[in-house]
Amino acid sequence: MKIEATIADAYQLFHEGALALARAERQGIRLDVDYCERQKKLLTNRIDRAYNKFKETKLYAIWNKVYKDKTNLDSNHQLGYILYNIMKIEPPKLTVSGKGATDEDTLMQLDLPELKWIKEVRRYKKIRDTYLDSFLREQTDGYLHPFFNLHTVRTYRSSCQSPNIQNIPRRDTEAMTICRKALFARPGHHIVEIDYHALEVSISACVNKDPNLIRYLTNPESDMHGDMAIQIFMLHDYLDMIENAGGVNKIDEFKVLRDATKNGFVFPQFYGDYYANNAVSIACDWCKLPKGKWRKNQGITIVNNKTIGEHLIEHGIKSLDDFIEHMKGIEYDFWHNRFGVYGQWREDWYREYQKKGYFDLLTGFRCSGIMRRNEVINYPVQGTAFHCLLKTFVEVDKIMQRENWDSRLIGQIHDSILLDVHPNELEHVIKTVRRVATVKIPRIWKWIIVPLSVEADVTPVDGSWADKKEYDGGI
DNA sequence: GGAACTCGCCAC
DNA sequence: AAACGTGGCGAGTTCC
After folding, report:
1. Chunked mean pLDDT (size 10), chain A, 475 residues
2. Distance between CA A77 and CA A220 in Å, rounded?
3. How far in angstroms lies nucleotide B7's C1' from the CA of residue A126?
């Protein structure tokens, strides 16, 4: 049985992938043009209102005095000059080119309430100008035909353009709703989005073969982020409570700590970040603790009306510096004990690249050229994970044609597939995609050594993409 | 007047 | 020893 993929296999995947994606591009995504026009007007009103509010502030008076008829409230260059040169505020953060930063996060640190109007303008402009405008510009006869490129990305992932439907807002509920309310399946159909669960972590386990990571991904009872949260926040006194509740996830006050761990430590570490950044992110962003020394009454509340500040101080962590030191130990344990094999793989893999000047993905693609360490350890996971999705896409495309579906593949977002589905075929389509994604692909690629799973979201018939709900098999 | 750049911000 | 990976895109700005 052949295991090692070749360049020819890689070529074959992209050849078939390009054809399948081209079919999706031709199919298109339906756009509610009138809705976009109406929504643009509403947003323009909100933007004008926020601008007018800002024009009542002292900050604007200074700005306008300096720039006069050249005043442009969309110019970050001007804003930075006013804040950091005229008003002599010490920039909390610098941009790559060394000027004072004016991104949202930095502005919020300045303690100038009037900047909230700038923030509001930016938010609504992003929605109007980046999304709704590009939808209207790119549509023909009420359908979008985004391009899915396979030739532009260093990792052999895809990219998407004209319009890019791979970056439509999701986390910001208001932005998500406004943008996705514009997008529909064909009349009488559902939009179905089927995404792989934890695909990149799963593929990473296939690449580095760490037994503990494989265990976490194989055993449904286990909880990697929960275990890490217990370790980072020293929740050992609460183990009984956590067990009785059924996991760290089940107690709201601890779920926050689990989210902080997942998004502030585990994922950033997998991408190559390090403990000092993680410590600041977890303590300051997630737990709302200040820089410097900590007090008992500071930070978010955990159980029994206790603050996280009090809890950490009780465990000997009395300042951000203490916490950074603590996270240093956590990081060491993470890569040497908990995921020691993964840690060793990272070292070996980078060494090997330094010797050879290239490395190959499990799917047969070759990455060569000058790369930083973090690139070298990330590409094999990022590219390969996308190839699982693309292979699924290709196989579903073949079945769709063979079985003459009324449903169509319409797009792809790195680890998820978008379909436009006839109601009579809903169950069959989801079953088919699930079978291909979780059974067929691991059968073809023997190097997939952890179970893969998918989740399906479905819109009501004639509902917009904003109305999607988790598919429970009974719609 | 367009190319190339910076900055900011959206996704995975 | 070093320190978060991959994209697209809009607005402003600078260079030629």
Report:
1. 83 96 95 95 94 95 92 92 94 89 91 93 93 92 94 91 92 94 97 96 96 96 96 96 94 94 94 94 94 95 93 97 97 96 96 95 94 93 96 97 97 96 98 97 96 96 95 70
2. 51
3. 14
Residues of chain A with CATH 3.30.70.370: 7-28+145-201+380-470
A7-28+145-201+380-470 is classed CATH 1.10.10.2840: no
Q: In A386-430, which ranges are E strands?
A: 408-412, 416-421
Per-position DSSP letters for A206-269, written without gaps between them: HHH--HHHHHHHH-TT--HHHHHHHHHTT-GGGHHHHHHHTSGGGSHHHHHHHHHHIIIIIHHH
CB proximity A134–strand B (7 Å threshold): no
Chain C footprint bases within 7 A of protein beta carbons: 1-14
Residue nearest to nucleotide C9 (CA to C1'): A130
Nearest nucleotide (CA of A170 to C1'): B11
Alpha-carbon distances of A359 from A256, A290, A348, A368, A379, rounded to whole Å: 39, 43, 12, 7, 10
Q: Tell me which residues have their CB below 7 A from strand C.
A: A 72, 74-78, 125, 129-130, 133-134, 137, 149, 152-155, 157, 159-164, 166-167, 267-268, 271-274, 277, 281, 372-375, 378-379, 382
CATH class assigned to A35-138:
mainly alpha
Cβ of A198 near strand B (distance < 7 A): no
